[in-house]
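dumping these here so i dont lose them again. two proteins, back to back, each one seq then structure tokens. dont judge the mess
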Amino acid sequence: MTLNLIRKFMLSGLLGTLAFSASAETFVFTAIPDEDETKLVERFQGVADYLSEELNVDVRYIPVKSYAAAVSAFRNNQVQLAWFGGLSGVQARRLVPGSEAIAQGVEDEAFQTYFIANTSTGIQPADDLATLEEGLKGTTFTFGSKGSTSGRLMPEFYIRETFGEQPEDFFARVGFSGNHTRTLRLVEAGTYEVGALNFQVWQKEVEDGNVDTDAVQVIWETPAYPDYQWTIRGDVNDRFGDGFKDRVKEALLSLDDKALLESFPRSGFIPASNDDYEPIRKTAEEIGILD
């Protein structure tokens, strides 16, 4: 075999390897760790399998340990798609110009936070948070994650707005549980007397028989606000081909697997845009926790 022919074979092999690498590139996504990790892995592995089939590319879900880690992974292009809460989505899109909110759960247009209390406090449910001031003042209180919309941003906003004090001044002790499920468990056990969590987690845990309603109850529900959404990087078409972003959006909007949707829990996904989350951005800016 001549030297030129050998070079041709080597070049052909190299080009083939590069072409294979490009076509075999993996589309990676993550999600904020708002519940127990085992639940998240089961839910999002199902999403990965569904997207892989719909998009005809390798799709992988990677779990992260914190809300901040989810934002960082998105910023660093370790993931190209993420299931964010309202606040973490706003933060991520600020860091990655051109990124877009493309879909939200049907229920995310009008999301809520539930304030819950251990029944030993004697605090009774009310429609107006202001009427609970005497019972809440001086109790121990836990938020969820520091970066959570429903577990921190919105409850802190209403505490400040209603009582005119920062949570640290109004309550005897303030904590951050890390996720909604843990908030529920801590208040149920009496480790904290009061807490704030995602209404969907509360409802699902009650439906599944995982809540001792003799020990913990909902005492107040916030007004509705926009929350969770799928956010995608603006450069995915460059990486995965023209029209890829639209294909991802269409796949998410078309997801109708009942069991998979129930694991979120959501009844389906609908279109979303960055403008939908302006109220979240303004609230975070107002109380100084946007960055």
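---- next one ----
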Amino acid sequence: MSNRRIFLSPPHMGGSELEQVHAVFDSNYIAPAGPHIERFEQRMAEYTGFGHCVALSSGTAAIHLGLRLLGVRPGDLVIASTLTFIASVSPALWLGAEPLFVDSCEQTWTMDPALLERALEQAHRDGRRVGAVVPTDIYGQCADYDRIQDVCQRFGVPLLTDAAEALGARYGERSAGKGAQVAAFSFNGNKIITCSGGGMLATDNRELAEHARKLSQQAREPFVHYEHVEMGYNYRMSNVCAGIGLGQMDVLHERVAQRREIFSLYSQLLGRVSGISFMPEAAYGRASRWLTVMLLDPERCAASPEQVRLALEAENIESRPVWKPMHCQPVFAGARCEGGAVAESLFARGLCLPSGTAMTRADVERVAGIIRECSA
């Protein structure tokens, strides 16, 4: 059996990326300017259904700009999913806001709308201003946008969706992120499509998009000389990365189908193993299955997630625990969390399996075989 390294979610080129990059070099637009950026933004707007997209250096930059443009200010609360990556939350602290975390719903693993409502009610009673709500579309599954949006509207709080992990997922007939005032996407090397790095801010608000684009280029005013009346950032995507992104957009539908096939194969191979289950798919949408995530029941399974991870690593296979909840992170010690037991349980029982679209059936069978041996 091959012992080549199997990574969790490696980048996978589709074939036209090199052609696009050659065109970038031929145009001599290398720095953060050029026609490929505009074309990439347009392709993303068409795909997601948003009116405007702004290509940036990272998904984190998109969240940072989005929070700033939605009016988050020092002393605000920013309510975020606790089951997420830290980049969903850290931009709020850069703006001087305080995080308040909300637990997941067991049926979807995304932000629990009922707990969000409770958190907003408590903030209202305490006289605290909530600058934004930031639910995470976890592992390629959309949060329950309609219910979350209804709650946010009742309290007059803007919604910023962290869709970094969910490009290609659907909420009903809508794209991931669609419905929020701002959505943030990521094209990091481990995402379903990649630019090697990069992100996208999406919105239906033209003025907000134009302001985001200005801020991403050091907030330069339209003068011949360099004039600045507000502070900006070096957040613009390069034309080279946009060229790669254009090539990747050509295969996005195929990548989603491949990830879902990988999930289905894992489910077939491991679904009848005692104590093993998989991340559920929300009834309201269609997950991209960016990563296949399994749960191990400690009362029925012979191995813990860490024992399985070590067994896979011994065979040169990468896997990873589920995100450690933000309210359990030392850097957020003392931060309040509405609920928390669901996310803590998922972290204790969950393991993310290799899900890259370059995986063959034999690769998936190899991974599943090792898991079966551990779990027997």
